[in-house]
Specification:
Blueprint: H1 2-27, E1 34-36, H2 53-56, E2 60-62, H3 68-71, H4 80-88, H5 94-97, E3 111-119, E4 122-129, E5 135-141, E6 155-161, E7 166-170, E8 179-185, E9 190-196
Antiparallel strand pairs: 1-2, 3-4, 4-7, 5-6, 5-8, 8-9
């Protein structure tokens, strides 16, 4: 049955691909096609719904050139929406982009894989460099007004170069709330992480 349904899905994807080729040839349209699955499976291949890496990992196939994000093997299902928006030329408002978990695998990407680690009233922000010589703007917010449809107040806390791959934020320079949102912005990437400190 598994093989039967894989073949059925393959036929359905083939029909979509044939339609895309037709539109491209007859009307000169440019299409991005992304194929993925909604979740992985447990080791036995039968179950899902847990938080194991195998269950949370999905594969992606795309018909367009991809950047270092996808070539790294770390691209995620959350990268699809920003990739489609970039392909279609949609400008994502900065307050929305700062909340997104994914980054585009289409077009340029400067940095990826952000992490935020608390240590002695500081936050060590780390990332992976994809393009050297790019300025990274480091922002912080101690509010989560976006959750209720409002706007967060963002404080620019510093700048770094993409190849630095780290920046330390002195939490004493920010309002003491115990809740922090951090964002790294470059011309081609926006990354975020939240952090709580007791």
């Amino acid at each position: 049955k598994f093989d039967q349904y894989v073949r059925l899905a393959d036929k359905q994807v083939e029909r979509v691909w044939d339609a895309v080729k037709y539109r491209r040839e007859k009307f000169g349209e440019d299409w991005m096609v992304v194929v993925t699955t909604d979740h992985g499976r447990t080791v036995d291949g039968h179950s899902h719904g847990g938080q194991t890496e195998r269950e949370r990992t999905t594969w992606l196939a795309v018909n367009k050139p991809v950047n270092g994000r996808m070539l790294s093997g770390k691209s995620a299902i959350t990268d699809i929406a920003p990739s489609i928006c970039r392909f279609l030329g949609f400008e994502i408002p900065s307050d929305v982009e700062r909340e997104q978990d994914g980054i585009s695998f289409y077009g340029k990407a400067d940095i990826m894989d952000m992490d935020a680690l608390p240590y002695d009233e500081k936050a060590d922000l780390k990332w992976t460099c994809l393009e050297k010589g790019v300025q990274v703007n480091v922002l912080a917010s101690v509010t989560n007004n976006f959750k209720a449809g409002g706007k967060d107040e963002w404080i620019e806390v510093g700048k770094a170069l993409s190849e630095d791959e780290s920046y330390t934020v002195d939490l004493k320079t920010l309002p003491k709330t115990g809740f922090y949102k951090f964002v790294l912005e470059t011309p081609n990437s926006t990354l975020n992480r939240w952090m709580t400190v007791e």
